[in-house]
Amino acid sequence: MMVERRPVLDFVAHAVLLLGVLVIAFPVYLAFIASTQSAEQIASSHPLSLLPGTHLLETYRLALLGGKTHAGSTIAAGWPMLGVSLAMALAIAVGKIAISLLSAFAIVYFRFPLKNAVFWMIFITLMLPVEVRIGPTYEVISNLGMLNTYAGLTVPLIASATATFLFRQFFLTVPDELVEAARIDGAGPMRFFLDVLLPLSKTTMAALFVIQFIYGWNQYLWPLMVTTSEDMYPIVLGIKRAIFGEVYVEWNVVMATAILAMLPPALVVMLMQKWFVKGLVDTEK
Questions:
Q1: Count of CB atoms within 10 A of residue 177's CB?
Q2: Dihedral through CA 33, CA 37, CA 42, CA 43, nearest 10?
Q3: Helix spans in the chain (H)
Q4: What is the DSSP letter of 193?
Q5: pLDDT digits over 50-61, tens only?
Q6: Which of 163, 193, 254, 277 has the fewest Cβ atoms within 10 Å of its own Cβ atom?
Q7: Which fold has domain 79-281?
Q8: Where are the domains of the chain?
Q9: Angle 150-158/134-143 helices, nearest 10 degrees?
Q10: CA–CA separation, 82 vs 188, rounded Å?
Q11: What is the pLDDT of the chain when averaged over all its residues?
């Protein structure tokens, strides 16, 4: 059956898409423009100029390396905070995928008492986000001496009921013949897991990696609770500190830091876009 193309509908669809792109991209463009101007220009310009300024290199140098501004404000270096955010996002993404793979593997391929109850106990934790259990979790982390550590930043956020559910649903679609063939060949459970399930799961793993990397990178409330040392601040807390930590806010540096904070997750999405889309929509496993 041939689908008739209607130029008017095509025009409307493209216009809506273009409008959506403009709505999303314009604030980012404004942030970039502000990062190329001085703080005095931003404070005195109403409305803000839409043309780039001449302070781009100076502003981004301050955002990355820190130092004193012309107004006397002290700017903390951004690159250590970017490193903390990167380590945190990678640990959370890899940890969530690893634990979810193993938990889904155990639920699908092993027989043990109350297996379904265990799965639903994992799944019901979706109703208990970090914000709900943040008090008891903080007390546990504090008693274990994990404040101001990478373990304290990442371990409470690693477990993922969503990823476990997705891997479980995928493992249920794996033909039983593969399990029988592996068993006939003498492969044990872990050999079957490593040689069969992991290669089949790579697109799902890639899609989850992108989602969980961005989730870990954007964490704000939990790092705010468990970090008191500036050495352990992620970049999101660095932006908050730049806004509320000084009497005079250097908005150009704040915007430069925000642009720098957007680059790593944007780069991950662009580099893994093909795998991300395939992992979400591909049904041919």
A1: 8
A2: 170
A3: 7-35, 39-44, 56-65, 79-109, 115-123, 134-143, 150-158, 161-172, 176-184, 189-192, 198-200, 202-217, 221-226, 235-244, 251-271, 273-281
A4: I
A5: 888 788 888 888
A6: 277
A7: MetI-like fold (1.10.3720)
A8: 7-64, 79-281
A9: 140
A10: 42
A11: 85
